[in-house]
UniProtKB/TrEMBL annotation:
<feature type="modified residue" description="N6-(pyridoxal phosphate)lysine">
    <location>
        <position position="63"/>
    </location>
</feature>
<feature type="binding site">
    <location>
        <position position="236"/>
    </location>
    <ligand>
        <name>pyridoxal 5'-phosphate</name>
    </ligand>
</feature>
<dbReference type="InterPro" id="IPR029066">
    <property type="entry name" value="PLP-binding_barrel"/>
</dbReference>
<comment type="subunit">
    <text>Homodimer.</text>
</comment>
<feature type="binding site">
    <location>
        <position position="387"/>
    </location>
    <ligand>
        <name>pyridoxal 5'-phosphate</name>
    </ligand>
</feature>
<feature type="domain" description="Orn/DAP/Arg decarboxylase 2 N-terminal">
    <location>
        <begin position="42"/>
        <end position="284"/>
    </location>
</feature>
<feature type="active site" description="Proton donor">
    <location>
        <position position="359"/>
    </location>
</feature>
<feature type="binding site">
    <location>
        <position position="317"/>
    </location>
    <ligand>
        <name>substrate</name>
    </ligand>
</feature>
<keyword id="KW-0456">Lyase</keyword>
<dbReference type="InterPro" id="IPR009006">
    <property type="entry name" value="Ala_racemase/Decarboxylase_C"/>
</dbReference>
<dbReference type="GO" id="GO:0008836">
    <property type="term" value="F:diaminopimelate decarboxylase activity"/>
</dbReference>
<dbReference type="InterPro" id="IPR022653">
    <property type="entry name" value="De-COase2_pyr-phos_BS"/>
</dbReference>
<keyword id="KW-0457">Lysine biosynthesis</keyword>
<feature type="binding site">
    <location>
        <position position="360"/>
    </location>
    <ligand>
        <name>substrate</name>
    </ligand>
</feature>
<dbReference type="Pfam" id="PF02784">
    <property type="entry name" value="Orn_Arg_deC_N"/>
</dbReference>
<keyword id="KW-0663">Pyridoxal phosphate</keyword>
<feature type="binding site">
    <location>
        <position position="281"/>
    </location>
    <ligand>
        <name>substrate</name>
    </ligand>
</feature>
Amino acid sequence: MNRNHLSVSDHLNVEDVDCTRLAEKYKTPLYVTSKKALKNNFNELKEALDNTYSNNRIHYACKANTNISILKTLRKEGSYIDAVSVGEVYLALKSGYEPSEILFTGTSVSNKELEYLVEKDVKINIDSISQLERLSKIGSPEISIRLNPGVGAGHHDHCITGGKESKFGIWEDKIVKAYEKAQRLDFDIKGIHMHIGSGIRDVNKFISPMERMMDIAGKVSNEIGIEFEFIDIGGGLGIPYKPNETSLNLKGYSEEITSIFKSKIEEHGLGNPTLALEPGRFLVGDTTILLTKVNDKKSNPFHKFIGVDAGFNTLLRPAMYGSHHGVINATNPKNAGRYIDGAKETEINKKVDIAGPLCESGDLLAEDRPIKAKIGDYLAILDVGAYGYVMSSRYNSRPLPAEVMVEGNKSKLIRKRETLEDLLNNQVD
Ligand SMILES: *Cc1c(COP(=O)(O)O)cnc(C)c1O
């Protein structure tokens, strides 16, 4: 558990800033990110990797959170970027990343998108043989190829991106052919890539895909004489969301993957490739809370509801994946200190559901939680830095929320709250 940026005094604090002050100043719903937590996450992972294999590169998988203040902060720490869309490439370039620091990994990529990527000179990670053929008519950029290693893992079926059900990458039986074709088409071949899934906290789950991939990389390299400049093993590093879940053992992860990496590059004579990683969730997930105001309370014979001003328009994960996010009463955080540190939730009240303002029964941010709150209190939804704001929508014609970054005792608006007028943007009548 890595929530050192959260603490409890009279109210919940992010670093040295009182959350209720933030909520009063910037209004709610409000995403609040700790800069310290963001830097810590990056540096903790970087250090663990440097200790075991120093020729490594961390590409932040920015689909988790593309606020440009977050992109800029991570670049300062030494991050590269993994982008999955032209929009993400655009935002990364606007945040100061060099084209050479960006790897694009898309799926179902159009020719128009390929043209943009070639024009911007970013590396392209190929997802299909058709994409390779289409790209060859547009240019000959640096490429890698995404392998489906035949195995995957993840916290939800939707988040498993390797194995026979997955639409991503090129299956092992066609991968040598794909590289041969890339050679024939005169591409500048730089790497091989996989990304097996998301939310993986068990180091063992990475082992067999890692071994498979390294063996396949060896086969490609030896059969057609390619020396890989980098081998990219994707992201997927999980974080604990529930109080009884354990963190990924970072030292264990790093030791395990680099030991396979090193022994396989030796076994297959792969030279001295860079080990590239693409964590998204791990870098940003626990850096951010969502502050939401209690609007209403009600009950029926079966449920107690606390009605708040954030719904699945603000945070989609609970409705979309059935995800669990911790909830703390930021105005009155008694007992919350232990919860922040990962203690079990205690029975402090009859359990309640935290319900949003949308006209949808599925609009619950949390179910059966021991939360006590009065109307007007602010609740903090924890660990929303990854796949939080980026999945928000204007459903029910609700303007998008604001984002704030905290550093020490200072807070800074990093995205304005939308207004009602914004709902008319681009509408033509
Ligand atoms: C989503 C994604 C990642 C990051 O996944 P996390 O689970 O957030 O670490 C990395 N690489 C690619 C290609 C992705 O699509």
